[in-house]
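Researcher: Last one for today. Full complex below.
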Amino acid sequence: MIRPSSLIKRISLVFLLGGVLYFFIISFTDFKEIYNSAGKDFFLLNGLLDTGSRNLVTAIYLDYRLFDSLFEAGILLIAVSGVMWVSEHKITEKNANFMLDKQKTPELFITFSRLLYPVMLLFGMYVVINGHISPGGGFQGGAIIATAILILYYIDIRKTIEVNLILTIEKFLFLFLFTIAFISYFTRGEFFTNFIPSSMGMDAQVFYLYLLNILIGAKVSLGLIAIFTAFLKEGR
Amino acid sequence: MNPILSFVVILIGVYGLATSRNIIKSVFCVTIIESATILLFLNLGAYEGGLVPILTELGIEIVDPLPQALMITTIVIGSTITSLALMLCIKIFHHYGSIEWKVILRGDK
Amino acid sequence: MMETIGLILQILLIIIALVIIFHKENFTIIIYISAFGLIAATLYVINQAPDVAIAEVAIGSAIIPLIYVISISRQREFIVLDRVDYDQFNLDKEVSDVYQILTEFADEHSLKLNICAGIKGSERELTRELNIDLIIVYNPDKQRFEFKGKSSSVIMKQLKTITKEKPFIQVSTIEDRDLYD
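Model: Here's the assembly. Have a good evening.
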Protein backbone atom coordinates (compact mmCIF):
# COMPACT_ATOMS: atom_id res chain seq x y z
CA MET A 1 0.00 0.00 0.00
CA ILE A 2 2.91 2.37 0.60
CA ARG A 3 4.71 2.95 -2.67
CA PRO A 4 8.50 3.56 -2.79
CA SER A 5 8.24 7.16 -4.04
CA SER A 6 5.92 8.19 -1.24
CA LEU A 7 8.11 6.35 1.29
CA ILE A 8 11.13 8.46 0.24
CA LYS A 9 9.03 11.60 0.62
CA ARG A 10 7.90 10.62 4.11
CA ILE A 11 11.42 9.83 5.31
CA SER A 12 12.78 13.13 3.98
CA LEU A 13 9.92 14.94 5.75
CA VAL A 14 10.88 13.24 9.02
CA PHE A 15 14.51 14.34 8.59
CA LEU A 16 13.43 17.92 7.85
CA LEU A 17 11.33 18.06 11.02
CA GLY A 18 14.23 16.53 12.96
CA GLY A 19 16.41 19.40 11.75
CA VAL A 20 13.86 21.94 12.97
CA LEU A 21 13.83 20.23 16.38
CA TYR A 22 17.65 20.39 16.53
CA PHE A 23 17.63 24.13 15.88
CA PHE A 24 14.99 24.63 18.55
CA ILE A 25 17.07 22.74 21.13
CA ILE A 26 20.16 24.80 20.31
CA SER A 27 18.42 28.16 20.63
CA PHE A 28 16.57 27.23 23.78
CA THR A 29 19.38 26.39 26.21
CA ASP A 30 19.99 30.01 27.23
CA PHE A 31 16.38 31.02 27.65
CA LYS A 32 16.59 31.62 31.39
CA GLU A 33 19.23 34.33 30.95
CA ILE A 34 17.17 36.52 28.63
CA TYR A 35 13.94 36.23 30.63
CA ASN A 36 13.30 39.36 32.71
CA SER A 37 10.50 39.72 35.19
CA ALA A 38 9.58 43.40 34.79
CA GLY A 39 6.07 42.65 33.53
CA LYS A 40 5.31 40.22 36.31
CA ASP A 41 6.45 42.67 39.01
CA PHE A 42 4.28 45.42 37.55
CA PHE A 43 1.16 43.24 37.67
CA LEU A 44 1.97 42.09 41.20
CA LEU A 45 2.34 45.62 42.55
CA ASN A 46 -0.41 47.50 40.72
CA GLY A 47 -2.96 44.91 39.64
CA LEU A 48 -5.20 44.89 42.69
CA LEU A 49 -5.19 48.63 43.33
CA ASP A 50 -5.94 49.68 39.75
CA THR A 51 -8.71 47.31 38.87
CA GLY A 52 -10.20 45.89 42.05
CA SER A 53 -10.01 42.22 41.07
CA ARG A 54 -8.00 39.63 42.88
CA ASN A 55 -7.69 37.38 39.86
CA LEU A 56 -4.87 38.96 37.85
CA VAL A 57 -5.77 37.14 34.62
CA THR A 58 -9.27 38.67 34.71
CA ALA A 59 -7.70 42.07 35.40
CA ILE A 60 -5.56 41.71 32.30
CA TYR A 61 -8.21 40.73 29.79
CA LEU A 62 -10.91 43.04 31.17
CA ASP A 63 -8.99 46.18 32.03
CA TYR A 64 -5.45 46.36 30.75
CA ARG A 65 -6.11 44.62 27.44
CA LEU A 66 -9.78 45.14 26.71
CA PHE A 67 -8.99 45.83 23.06
CA ASP A 68 -7.96 42.22 22.49
CA SER A 69 -11.14 40.90 24.08
CA LEU A 70 -13.29 43.10 21.88
CA PHE A 71 -11.68 41.74 18.77
CA GLU A 72 -12.01 38.20 20.04
CA ALA A 73 -15.75 38.75 20.42
CA GLY A 74 -15.76 40.14 16.89
CA ILE A 75 -14.06 37.02 15.54
CA LEU A 76 -16.73 34.89 17.19
CA LEU A 77 -19.41 36.94 15.44
CA ILE A 78 -17.71 36.56 12.06
CA ALA A 79 -17.28 32.80 12.46
CA VAL A 80 -20.94 32.31 13.46
CA SER A 81 -22.15 34.32 10.49
CA GLY A 82 -19.83 32.33 8.20
CA VAL A 83 -21.24 29.02 9.38
CA MET A 84 -24.80 30.32 9.00
CA TRP A 85 -24.19 31.50 5.46
CA VAL A 86 -22.73 28.22 4.19
CA SER A 87 -25.27 25.88 5.76
CA GLU A 88 -28.84 25.28 4.61
CA HIS A 89 -30.81 25.38 7.83
CA LYS A 90 -34.08 27.07 6.89
CA ILE A 91 -35.92 24.12 5.35
CA THR A 92 -39.27 23.98 7.07
CA GLU A 93 -41.82 23.50 4.33
CA LYS A 94 -40.41 20.39 2.73
CA ASN A 95 -41.24 18.02 5.60
CA ALA A 96 -38.44 15.60 4.82
CA ASN A 97 -38.53 12.31 6.70
CA PHE A 98 -35.53 10.11 6.27
CA MET A 99 -35.49 6.45 7.13
CA LEU A 100 -32.45 6.40 9.38
CA ASP A 101 -33.46 9.39 11.48
CA LYS A 102 -36.16 7.55 13.34
CA GLN A 103 -33.86 6.06 15.96
CA LYS A 104 -34.69 6.64 19.59
CA THR A 105 -32.12 7.54 22.22
CA PRO A 106 -32.02 5.11 25.16
CA GLU A 107 -34.07 5.84 28.27
CA LEU A 108 -30.98 5.96 30.48
CA PHE A 109 -29.52 8.90 28.57
CA ILE A 110 -32.76 10.85 28.70
CA THR A 111 -33.18 10.44 32.46
CA PHE A 112 -29.58 11.29 33.19
CA SER A 113 -29.70 14.39 31.00
CA ARG A 114 -32.80 15.59 32.81
CA LEU A 115 -30.97 15.31 36.11
CA LEU A 116 -27.78 16.98 34.91
CA TYR A 117 -29.21 19.93 33.00
CA PRO A 118 -30.12 22.34 35.87
CA VAL A 119 -26.93 21.53 37.79
CA MET A 120 -24.72 22.37 34.81
CA LEU A 121 -26.60 25.59 34.12
CA LEU A 122 -26.19 26.72 37.72
CA PHE A 123 -22.50 25.86 37.75
CA GLY A 124 -21.94 27.81 34.54
CA MET A 125 -23.58 30.91 35.96
CA TYR A 126 -21.51 30.57 39.15
CA VAL A 127 -18.28 30.46 37.15
CA VAL A 128 -19.28 33.54 35.14
CA ILE A 129 -20.24 35.72 38.08
CA ASN A 130 -17.28 34.82 40.32
CA GLY A 131 -14.73 35.59 37.66
CA HIS A 132 -12.72 38.09 39.66
CA ILE A 133 -12.08 36.14 42.84
CA SER A 134 -11.65 32.56 41.68
CA PRO A 135 -10.53 30.87 38.46
CA GLY A 136 -13.19 31.49 35.87
CA GLY A 137 -14.59 34.40 33.96
CA GLY A 138 -16.65 35.19 30.90
CA PHE A 139 -15.16 32.85 28.33
CA GLN A 140 -15.02 29.80 30.53
CA GLY A 141 -18.51 30.18 31.94
CA GLY A 142 -19.93 30.81 28.49
CA ALA A 143 -18.54 27.51 27.25
CA ILE A 144 -20.03 25.65 30.23
CA ILE A 145 -23.49 27.20 29.68
CA ALA A 146 -23.32 26.24 26.00
CA THR A 147 -22.56 22.64 26.96
CA ALA A 148 -25.52 22.65 29.36
CA ILE A 149 -27.93 23.71 26.62
CA LEU A 150 -26.46 21.13 24.24
CA ILE A 151 -27.65 18.43 26.61
CA LEU A 152 -31.22 19.54 25.81
CA TYR A 153 -30.79 18.07 22.36
CA TYR A 154 -30.27 14.67 23.90
CA ILE A 155 -33.67 14.80 25.52
CA ASP A 156 -35.62 15.62 22.39
CA ILE A 157 -33.85 16.04 19.09
CA ARG A 158 -36.81 17.53 17.28
CA LYS A 159 -37.12 20.62 19.47
CA THR A 160 -34.45 22.90 18.07
CA ILE A 161 -34.05 26.46 19.20
CA GLU A 162 -34.95 29.37 16.91
CA VAL A 163 -31.73 30.54 15.35
CA ASN A 164 -32.76 33.99 14.15
CA LEU A 165 -33.67 35.23 17.61
CA ILE A 166 -30.33 34.06 19.01
CA LEU A 167 -28.38 35.82 16.28
CA THR A 168 -30.23 39.12 16.79
CA ILE A 169 -29.58 39.07 20.55
CA GLU A 170 -25.93 38.30 19.93
CA LYS A 171 -25.46 41.25 17.60
CA PHE A 172 -27.03 43.62 20.10
CA LEU A 173 -24.81 42.26 22.87
CA PHE A 174 -21.73 42.96 20.78
CA LEU A 175 -22.79 46.56 20.14
CA PHE A 176 -23.56 47.04 23.82
CA LEU A 177 -20.11 45.72 24.74
CA PHE A 178 -18.50 48.18 22.37
CA THR A 179 -20.48 51.09 23.81
CA ILE A 180 -19.48 50.28 27.38
CA ALA A 181 -15.84 50.20 26.37
CA PHE A 182 -16.16 53.69 24.88
CA ILE A 183 -17.91 55.29 27.87
CA SER A 184 -14.66 55.40 29.81
CA TYR A 185 -13.42 58.27 27.63
CA PHE A 186 -15.83 60.66 29.35
CA THR A 187 -15.15 59.72 32.95
CA ARG A 188 -11.48 58.93 32.95
CA GLY A 189 -9.97 60.44 29.84
CA GLU A 190 -8.71 57.30 28.12
CA PHE A 191 -10.34 54.64 26.00
CA PHE A 192 -11.06 50.98 26.77
CA THR A 193 -10.81 50.87 30.52
CA ASN A 194 -12.97 50.99 33.61
CA PHE A 195 -15.59 53.74 33.52
CA ILE A 196 -15.94 54.10 37.27
CA PRO A 197 -13.39 56.71 38.43
CA SER A 198 -10.66 55.45 40.69
CA SER A 199 -11.48 57.93 43.41
CA MET A 200 -14.51 55.88 44.43
CA GLY A 201 -12.40 53.14 45.90
CA MET A 202 -11.84 49.50 45.13
CA ASP A 203 -15.22 48.22 46.21
CA ALA A 204 -17.13 50.26 43.63
CA GLN A 205 -14.95 49.25 40.70
CA VAL A 206 -16.11 45.65 40.99
CA PHE A 207 -19.45 46.43 39.29
CA TYR A 208 -17.76 47.00 35.98
CA LEU A 209 -16.18 43.53 36.21
CA TYR A 210 -19.57 41.95 36.97
CA LEU A 211 -21.20 43.64 34.00
CA LEU A 212 -18.52 42.76 31.48
CA ASN A 213 -18.20 39.17 32.63
CA ILE A 214 -21.95 38.62 32.25
CA LEU A 215 -21.96 40.21 28.79
CA ILE A 216 -19.03 38.19 27.51
CA GLY A 217 -20.44 34.97 28.98
CA ALA A 218 -23.81 35.50 27.31
CA LYS A 219 -22.20 36.31 23.98
CA VAL A 220 -19.90 33.28 23.88
CA SER A 221 -22.66 30.86 24.89
CA LEU A 222 -25.16 32.16 22.34
CA GLY A 223 -22.57 31.96 19.57
CA LEU A 224 -21.69 28.34 20.34
CA ILE A 225 -25.38 27.36 20.55
CA ALA A 226 -26.03 28.93 17.13
CA ILE A 227 -23.13 27.00 15.57
CA PHE A 228 -24.33 23.71 17.00
CA THR A 229 -27.93 24.24 15.90
CA ALA A 230 -26.76 24.96 12.36
CA PHE A 231 -24.85 21.66 12.34
CA LEU A 232 -27.88 19.70 13.54
CA LYS A 233 -30.37 21.21 11.12
CA GLU A 234 -28.16 21.01 8.04
CA GLY A 235 -30.16 19.55 5.20
CA ARG A 236 -33.03 18.10 7.25
CA MET B 1 12.98 19.27 29.15
CA ASN B 2 9.31 20.18 29.15
CA PRO B 3 9.27 22.75 26.30
CA ILE B 4 11.18 20.31 24.11
CA LEU B 5 8.55 17.60 24.61
CA SER B 6 5.74 20.02 23.72
CA PHE B 7 7.64 20.99 20.58
CA VAL B 8 7.84 17.32 19.62
CA VAL B 9 4.02 17.11 19.79
CA ILE B 10 3.79 20.19 17.52
CA LEU B 11 6.08 18.52 14.98
CA ILE B 12 4.05 15.30 15.12
CA GLY B 13 0.96 17.38 14.32
CA VAL B 14 2.72 19.02 11.35
CA TYR B 15 3.75 15.60 10.00
CA GLY B 16 0.19 14.34 10.32
CA LEU B 17 -1.14 17.42 8.52
CA ALA B 18 1.24 16.95 5.60
CA THR B 19 0.55 13.25 5.05
CA SER B 20 -3.14 12.85 5.77
CA ARG B 21 -5.43 11.01 3.40
CA ASN B 22 -8.84 12.46 4.04
CA ILE B 23 -10.11 15.87 4.98
CA ILE B 24 -11.27 15.02 8.50
CA LYS B 25 -7.84 13.84 9.60
CA SER B 26 -6.33 17.18 8.58
CA VAL B 27 -8.74 18.97 10.91
CA PHE B 28 -7.82 16.53 13.71
CA CYS B 29 -4.15 17.47 13.29
CA VAL B 30 -4.91 21.21 13.50
CA THR B 31 -6.55 20.61 16.89
CA ILE B 32 -3.46 18.73 18.11
CA ILE B 33 -1.11 21.53 17.00
CA GLU B 34 -3.20 24.17 18.74
CA SER B 35 -3.35 22.40 22.12
CA ALA B 36 0.39 21.70 22.09
CA THR B 37 1.24 25.33 21.25
CA ILE B 38 -0.74 26.58 24.24
CA LEU B 39 1.14 24.11 26.47
CA LEU B 40 4.46 25.43 25.15
CA PHE B 41 3.60 29.04 25.94
CA LEU B 42 2.36 28.28 29.43
CA ASN B 43 5.48 26.29 30.20
CA LEU B 44 7.75 29.20 29.31
CA GLY B 45 6.09 31.41 31.89
CA ALA B 46 6.04 29.02 34.85
CA TYR B 47 8.95 28.45 37.22
CA GLU B 48 9.55 26.44 40.33
CA GLY B 49 8.14 27.95 43.49
CA GLY B 50 5.67 30.23 41.74
CA LEU B 51 2.02 30.07 42.66
CA VAL B 52 -1.30 30.56 40.86
CA PRO B 53 -1.78 34.28 39.97
CA ILE B 54 -4.78 34.88 42.26
CA LEU B 55 -4.04 37.25 45.14
CA THR B 56 -5.75 35.74 48.15
CA GLU B 57 -3.17 37.51 50.30
CA LEU B 58 -0.70 40.16 49.27
CA GLY B 59 3.02 39.61 48.83
CA ILE B 60 3.20 36.10 47.41
CA GLU B 61 5.27 34.97 44.48
CA ILE B 62 3.25 34.37 41.34
CA VAL B 63 3.89 33.16 37.82
CA ASP B 64 3.50 35.48 34.86
CA PRO B 65 -0.24 36.13 34.25
CA LEU B 66 0.09 37.65 30.78
CA PRO B 67 0.52 34.46 28.68
CA GLN B 68 -2.46 32.90 30.43
CA ALA B 69 -4.75 35.77 29.48
CA LEU B 70 -3.75 35.53 25.82
CA MET B 71 -4.09 31.77 25.68
CA ILE B 72 -7.72 31.89 26.82
CA THR B 73 -8.71 33.77 23.68
CA THR B 74 -6.57 31.38 21.62
CA ILE B 75 -8.66 28.40 22.75
CA VAL B 76 -11.97 30.03 21.82
CA ILE B 77 -10.69 31.16 18.43
CA GLY B 78 -9.31 27.68 17.70
CA SER B 79 -12.69 26.11 18.36
CA THR B 80 -14.49 28.48 15.99
CA ILE B 81 -11.95 27.78 13.25
CA THR B 82 -12.49 24.03 13.68
CA SER B 83 -16.27 24.37 13.43
CA LEU B 84 -16.07 26.49 10.27
CA ALA B 85 -13.67 23.98 8.68
CA LEU B 86 -16.00 21.07 9.47
CA MET B 87 -19.01 22.82 7.95
CA LEU B 88 -17.03 23.30 4.74
CA CYS B 89 -16.06 19.60 4.84
CA ILE B 90 -19.73 18.57 4.92
CA LYS B 91 -20.45 20.78 1.93
CA ILE B 92 -17.48 19.38 -0.01
CA PHE B 93 -18.68 15.83 0.62
CA HIS B 94 -22.14 16.55 -0.67
CA HIS B 95 -20.77 18.19 -3.79
CA TYR B 96 -18.10 15.69 -4.77
CA GLY B 97 -19.20 12.45 -3.16
CA SER B 98 -15.93 11.46 -1.51
CA ILE B 99 -13.69 12.63 1.30
CA GLU B 100 -10.22 11.74 0.11
CA TRP B 101 -7.87 14.50 -0.94
CA LYS B 102 -6.62 12.84 -4.11
CA VAL B 103 -10.07 12.14 -5.48
CA ILE B 104 -11.26 15.69 -4.82
CA LEU B 105 -8.19 17.41 -6.24
CA ARG B 106 -8.18 15.28 -9.37
CA GLY B 107 -11.49 16.74 -10.51
CA ASP B 108 -13.45 15.33 -13.40
CA LYS B 109 -10.82 13.15 -15.02
CA MET C 1 6.93 14.77 42.80
CA MET C 2 4.99 17.12 40.54
CA GLU C 3 7.78 17.11 38.01
CA THR C 4 7.77 13.37 37.55
CA ILE C 5 3.98 13.36 37.11
CA GLY C 6 4.34 16.12 34.52
CA LEU C 7 7.02 14.16 32.67
CA ILE C 8 4.94 10.96 32.58
CA LEU C 9 1.88 12.84 31.33
CA GLN C 10 3.83 14.53 28.56
CA ILE C 11 5.16 11.21 27.30
CA LEU C 12 1.57 9.91 27.34
CA LEU C 13 0.59 12.97 25.27
CA ILE C 14 3.21 12.07 22.65
CA ILE C 15 1.93 8.48 22.48
CA ILE C 16 -1.69 9.60 22.02
CA ALA C 17 -0.66 12.05 19.27
CA LEU C 18 1.11 9.22 17.41
CA VAL C 19 -1.96 6.99 17.70
CA ILE C 20 -4.21 9.76 16.34
CA ILE C 21 -2.24 10.28 13.15
CA PHE C 22 -1.70 6.61 12.41
CA HIS C 23 -5.20 5.24 13.01
CA LYS C 24 -7.51 4.57 10.10
CA GLU C 25 -11.06 4.68 11.40
CA ASN C 26 -12.33 8.23 11.77
CA PHE C 27 -15.01 7.48 14.29
CA THR C 28 -12.78 6.07 17.04
CA ILE C 29 -10.27 8.92 16.86
CA ILE C 30 -12.86 11.19 18.49
CA ILE C 31 -12.40 9.44 21.86
CA TYR C 32 -8.65 9.95 21.56
CA ILE C 33 -9.18 13.67 20.88
CA SER C 34 -11.26 13.97 24.04
CA ALA C 35 -8.59 12.17 26.10
CA PHE C 36 -5.91 14.42 24.55
CA GLY C 37 -7.82 17.50 25.71
CA LEU C 38 -8.20 16.16 29.25
CA ILE C 39 -4.52 15.30 29.64
CA ALA C 40 -3.56 18.71 28.25
CA ALA C 41 -5.84 20.36 30.83
CA THR C 42 -4.11 18.44 33.65
CA LEU C 43 -0.76 19.67 32.36
CA TYR C 44 -2.06 23.24 32.35
CA VAL C 45 -2.95 22.93 36.04
CA ILE C 46 0.51 21.57 36.84
CA ASN C 47 1.94 24.68 35.16
CA GLN C 48 -0.12 26.89 37.53
CA ALA C 49 -2.82 28.06 35.07
CA PRO C 50 -6.33 27.02 36.21
CA ASP C 51 -8.23 29.54 34.05
CA VAL C 52 -6.88 28.05 30.85
CA ALA C 53 -7.61 24.53 32.13
CA ILE C 54 -11.34 25.25 32.65
CA ALA C 55 -11.61 26.69 29.13
CA GLU C 56 -9.77 23.73 27.57
CA VAL C 57 -11.97 21.14 29.28
CA ALA C 58 -15.24 22.84 28.40
CA ILE C 59 -14.35 23.49 24.78
CA GLY C 60 -11.79 20.88 23.79
CA SER C 61 -13.39 17.86 25.48
CA ALA C 62 -17.11 18.54 25.36
CA ILE C 63 -18.08 20.79 22.46
CA ILE C 64 -15.51 19.91 19.80
CA PRO C 65 -16.03 16.11 19.93
CA LEU C 66 -19.80 16.62 19.64
CA ILE C 67 -19.33 18.69 16.49
CA TYR C 68 -16.97 16.03 15.09
CA VAL C 69 -19.56 13.28 15.76
CA ILE C 70 -22.26 15.13 13.85
CA SER C 71 -20.10 15.96 10.87
CA ILE C 72 -18.60 12.46 10.55
CA SER C 73 -22.01 10.78 10.71
CA ARG C 74 -23.27 13.07 7.94
CA GLN C 75 -20.43 11.99 5.69
CA ARG C 76 -21.33 8.35 5.76
CA GLU C 77 -24.73 8.29 4.17
CA PHE C 78 -26.06 7.95 0.67
CA ILE C 79 -29.51 9.50 0.29
CA VAL C 80 -31.90 8.05 -2.30
CA LEU C 81 -35.28 9.51 -3.23
CA ASP C 82 -37.77 7.07 -4.67
CA ARG C 83 -40.34 8.58 -7.01
CA VAL C 84 -41.68 5.47 -8.69
CA ASP C 85 -45.45 5.04 -8.56
CA TYR C 86 -45.72 1.41 -7.46
CA ASP C 87 -49.50 1.13 -7.68
CA GLN C 88 -49.62 1.90 -11.37
CA PHE C 89 -47.01 -0.43 -12.75
CA ASN C 90 -46.14 -4.02 -11.94
CA LEU C 91 -42.41 -4.05 -11.48
CA ASP C 92 -41.51 -6.49 -8.76
CA LYS C 93 -38.57 -8.22 -10.34
CA GLU C 94 -36.90 -5.11 -11.69
CA VAL C 95 -37.33 -3.21 -8.44
CA SER C 96 -35.59 -5.93 -6.46
CA ASP C 97 -32.73 -5.88 -8.98
CA VAL C 98 -32.40 -2.13 -8.67
CA TYR C 99 -32.28 -2.24 -4.90
CA GLN C 100 -29.80 -5.07 -4.93
CA ILE C 101 -27.47 -3.01 -7.12
CA LEU C 102 -27.85 -0.05 -4.80
CA THR C 103 -27.14 -2.07 -1.66
CA GLU C 104 -24.04 -3.65 -3.16
CA PHE C 105 -22.81 -0.25 -4.29
CA ALA C 106 -23.32 1.28 -0.86
CA ASP C 107 -21.57 -1.59 0.91
CA GLU C 108 -18.60 -1.36 -1.39
CA HIS C 109 -17.98 2.27 -0.49
CA SER C 110 -18.88 1.71 3.19
CA LEU C 111 -21.77 4.15 3.08
CA LYS C 112 -25.16 3.74 4.68
CA LEU C 113 -28.23 3.72 2.48
CA ASN C 114 -30.88 6.22 3.53
CA ILE C 115 -34.11 5.97 1.53
CA CYS C 116 -36.98 8.43 1.59
CA ALA C 117 -40.14 9.03 -0.39
CA GLY C 118 -42.90 11.52 -0.86
CA ILE C 119 -41.06 14.83 -0.99
CA LYS C 120 -42.35 17.42 -3.40
CA GLY C 121 -40.16 19.84 -5.27
CA SER C 122 -38.18 20.24 -8.44
CA GLU C 123 -35.13 18.07 -8.92
CA ARG C 124 -32.64 20.92 -9.02
CA GLU C 125 -33.83 22.32 -5.72
CA LEU C 126 -33.79 18.97 -4.01
CA THR C 127 -30.24 18.05 -4.92
CA ARG C 128 -29.04 21.44 -3.82
CA GLU C 129 -30.94 22.01 -0.59
CA LEU C 130 -31.60 18.62 0.91
CA ASN C 131 -28.35 17.06 -0.35
CA ILE C 132 -30.11 14.16 -2.03
CA ASP C 133 -27.67 12.03 -3.98
CA LEU C 134 -29.94 9.99 -6.25
CA ILE C 135 -33.49 10.27 -7.60
CA ILE C 136 -35.21 7.22 -9.12
CA VAL C 137 -37.93 7.84 -11.72
CA TYR C 138 -39.70 5.31 -13.95
CA ASN C 139 -40.26 6.15 -17.57
CA PRO C 140 -43.19 4.05 -18.87
CA ASP C 141 -42.69 4.83 -22.57
CA LYS C 142 -39.22 3.39 -22.75
CA GLN C 143 -39.73 0.83 -19.99
CA ARG C 144 -36.72 1.69 -17.89
CA PHE C 145 -35.66 3.34 -14.69
CA GLU C 146 -33.77 6.61 -14.67
CA PHE C 147 -31.21 7.52 -12.07
CA LYS C 148 -30.51 11.20 -11.70
CA GLY C 149 -27.75 12.78 -9.66
CA LYS C 150 -25.29 15.64 -9.55
CA SER C 151 -22.85 15.98 -12.40
CA SER C 152 -19.89 16.92 -10.22
CA SER C 153 -20.09 13.85 -8.02
CA VAL C 154 -17.61 11.02 -8.37
CA ILE C 155 -20.25 8.46 -7.42
CA MET C 156 -22.31 9.02 -10.57
CA LYS C 157 -19.39 8.05 -12.80
CA GLN C 158 -18.95 4.79 -10.95
CA LEU C 159 -22.68 4.11 -11.19
CA LYS C 160 -22.52 4.62 -14.94
CA THR C 161 -19.82 1.99 -15.37
CA ILE C 162 -21.64 -0.50 -13.15
CA THR C 163 -25.02 -0.24 -14.86
CA LYS C 164 -23.80 -0.22 -18.44
CA GLU C 165 -24.87 -3.75 -19.21
CA LYS C 166 -28.34 -3.57 -17.68
CA PRO C 167 -30.90 -2.56 -20.29
CA PHE C 168 -33.54 -1.27 -17.91
CA ILE C 169 -31.47 1.37 -16.05
CA GLN C 170 -30.25 4.65 -17.44
CA VAL C 171 -28.09 7.16 -15.56
CA SER C 172 -28.31 10.87 -16.28
CA THR C 173 -26.87 13.86 -14.43
CA ILE C 174 -28.15 17.27 -13.39
CA GLU C 175 -25.90 20.26 -13.81
CA ASP C 176 -25.19 21.95 -10.52
CA ARG C 177 -25.22 25.71 -10.14
CA ASP C 178 -22.05 27.73 -10.46
CA LEU C 179 -20.30 27.87 -7.13
CA TYR C 180 -18.49 31.17 -7.60
CA ASP C 181 -20.91 34.03 -7.95
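Helices of chain B lie at 2-18, 23-45, 66-96, 101-106. Chain B touches chain A at residues 3-4, 7-8, 11, 14-15, 18-19, 44, 52-56, 58, 62-66, 68-70, 72-73, 75-77, 79-81, 83-84, 86-88, 90-91, 94 (CB under 8 Å).
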